[in-house]
From TrEMBL:
<keyword id="KW-0812">Transmembrane</keyword>
<keyword id="KW-1133">Transmembrane helix</keyword>
<dbReference type="Pfam" id="PF14019">
    <property type="entry name" value="DUF4235"/>
</dbReference>
<feature type="transmembrane region" description="Helical">
    <location>
        <begin position="50"/>
        <end position="68"/>
    </location>
</feature>
<dbReference type="InterPro" id="IPR025329">
    <property type="entry name" value="DUF4235"/>
</dbReference>
<protein>
    <submittedName>
        <fullName>Uncharacterized protein</fullName>
    </submittedName>
</protein>
<keyword id="KW-0472">Membrane</keyword>
Length: 92
């Protein structure tokens, strides 16, 4: 596997994980009785509600992207026999 394969695998998995995490947060947010389709940048949305939504979304998306990238790197390492060049800590 080359660097192009890693870019596709790493970036694709991170983007997909972020989208899925955002949808999950939206679903949980709505089921917990909050307004559907909140826009935390809208000044008419109460600040506390906007802050809570943004914090939950940011945490969920960040965790999902990190987990997905780590798993993609493990898959790459199993296929190529080494981590992607961007992740290697040893001298090559």
């Amino acid at each position: 596997m080359g660097s192009a394969a890693w870019r596709i695998l790493g970036t694709g998995s991170a983007v997909l994980a972020g989208i899925v995490a955002g949808k999950i947060v939206d679903t949980i947010w709505e089921r917990s009785g909050h307004d559907k389709g909140i826009d935390p940048t809208n000044p008419e949305v109460p600040f506390r509600q906007a802050l809570l939504y943004a914090a939950c979304t940011g945490l969920a998306v960040g965790l999902a992207r990190t987990f997905a990238t780590r798993k993609a790197a493990q898959l790459y390492a199993r296929s190529a026999g080494h981590l992607p060049a961007e992740m290697r800590t040893d001298e090559v």
